[in-house]
Amino acid sequence: MSELIKRVIVAIIGIPLAIAIIYAGQWYLAVVLMVLSILAMREFYDISEKKHSYPNKIMGYIVGVLLIANFQYFSLFQSIFFAITIIITFTLMALIFELWRNKPNSILNIAMTLAGVLYIPVLLSTLLFIRHFYDIVEFIQSENFSFIMAPRNILATRVEGAWLLVSILVSIWICDSAAYFIGKAIGKRKLFERISPKKTWEGAMAGLVFAIISFWGASELMLRDFPFVSAIVIGLIVGIVGQLGDLCESQIKRDAGVKDSSDLLPGHGGILDRLDSILFVMPTVFIYLFFVVVEF
User: What was the pLDDT predicted at 61?
Assistant: First the structure.
């Protein structure tokens, strides 16, 4: 079976399932993010072992699950406070536990344990923020934070948080596909040969253009009165920041001498290979949206 057919089969199964989970939101989405976080962290930790590190995997998995559960269970500002507490405690525990692990390369072990949590569950949890963005703005309004900030919701209804998240994911998938197929067809000038020899400027520009068009089109279909300027900005974020996320993960894999993060998904590589753009795009979009809707 060709790689393209494998990709299509996985997409046919995965995309409707992803949309259903995003629409349900709440703990359904949070639990799926926990599972994805553990799988992606496992791949990251396995890659780091190629560089002779011995990360504390179990501790990393537990902290990743706690962080995502924290962001789902508590309100925005409460969850930020608890997240800082969790990360501080985790950092101290990673340093202390290393005393008893009796593994070589302690500096690398501690650094990779921490890096896995910061890179994956911390960034991945921003999908919850975007899915429930309407509720975040309502919380700011209800708690009378207006003396320092005046929120104005960019979403018309609570369910639009689901369609916003779906629109971003659609844009990421189309950006990746356009960059891959158009780059393969007409690409000549190497984008970043040292990191990813097959990527070209032609493919990257095609990905950027299709990211903007696809997010604008998806927002027109699924979001009521979504600002045109914000649609263009988010399309730019997907097209630029998303491709940087892909390059950064490629850099990690190349340094470790591996082609894919794993072979878990036929034709797609591993979970981390599918999340690389998402891990960069979602936090950037959330930061943009927050500062668009909140006037300090």
Answer: 97
